[in-house]
Amino acid sequence: MMFAVAMTFIDQTIVSIAAPDIVRELNLSSSGMQWVVNAYLLALAAFFALGGRLADLYGPRRIVVIGTVVFVVSSVLCGCVPEGSAAQTWMIVFRATQGFGAALLFPAALAVVVAVFPVERRGRALALFFGVSGALTALGPLLGGWLTNWTWRAVFWVNVPVAIVALVLTALAHIADRRRSGTLDVRGAALIAVGMGLSVLGFQQAWSWGWDSWATWLCIAGGLAVLYGFVRFERDVEHPLIDLRVFKDKAFAVDAAVLFFSMLAFVPLFFFTSVYAQVSLSASPNQAALFLLYFFIGFAIASQWGGRILDKRGARPALKLGTVVGCVGFALWANKLTDLSMHDQWPYAALAGAGIGFILAPASTDAVNRSIGASYGEVTGITQTVRNYAASVGLAIYGTILTHVTTDKVVQTLQSRGMSTDDANTVARDITESITGSGDSQPPTGTGPAAEATRDAMGAIRMDFAEANQWVFYGMAIALGIGYLFAVRHPGGRPTSNETVEEPVGQAH
User: Fold this and answer.
1) Which domain of life does the protein's organism represent (predicted)?
2) What does pTM read for this prediction?
């Protein structure tokens, strides 16, 4: 199962490294490239609950296989995108179907793992599961940097051999399909997908439309209203997509809240750090990948440590420690971004990674341990929906902050070099579109005073981009700080085996 979910974790990071080459070859816009990244995360958030419910109804093994096939076919199609006007739409559509396949695959795979281990051993087992998965996430940038030197399309095609091995191992494992009685809540699935899609669209497009645009707030408010309607609808359904009774457990609700605020930083970090490294540090894709590796050194160590804390003392100590360490780590890292030295930043990157490592496995495992009856797939769907919705919102909000601050700072830089206000605004917006969407810091090749002034200012513009990224990283620190306020409200303790009665593996209704 760890091998099966490897693809879903690798694809959260691998595309960020290849972004400059993708933008350059396909001529994508800044917002278009962000949507190539965000479409995957949004589909994960929108369909995770559905994936968990399908695993319950039809058996996790079957859904693992279906999700793997959908994922790998979509990956191949992403790698085969044609050049031309249809390229952007093609990439966004098949990145979304990739996310749909991952949303089917992950909760089903985790449900299989959870069913194997009793509650008292589950913390260490899932710490291994999430720790190895996190290490595979770190592999994404490294693999992406190496493959991009050949062709960026290979970052999608690499999923094919992984999927083949995963399917063979799944067959050899002889996994029994547990099934639960009930029906599929199609209306609920549609409501949560529409609500999440609309709200994230509003956040994402705030840069293009403006925060004062009625369209921005119509999408945000409309999406949140649909999600509220989803909650009201689920209360009256006999077999709901999400059994909201689980949120009456205070520990589960706190676990979900801490996961939400930590994921505002975790997944968006991959995109912003890789672009920062390539623009402000003038790093190659391979060097940018190594930059992210520092983060995962801290993550991998703390993930195992957090699993032991969970087994011995429950989730509360791990969540409190993780949010504090993460908040401090991101704040110190933000302060160092303007040093423009990868070597000086690695301790703070590792500290930020350790904070997330302490949180991820304990919060996810504690939430699953508090599932209702045998519905591990359903509860996993809930927690993963929370995580990936937070990642989508974080990417959208931080992207908007980055583009606004970068534009303002570049305008000031160009004006200080004698460029008129109108020209400075036009050039600054073009530069921001280029670097925030793809990490492309190539100086302009045109002629004329504007191009000359811009080429002369590229060193200062790299610093402007670093300063703009400070806002993003401080925002991530604030998110972890808010997470701490929830972590201290965790009631503590550990659920006992009789609180999560699991059917014998292989039993079907």
Assistant:
1) Bacteria
2) 0.80
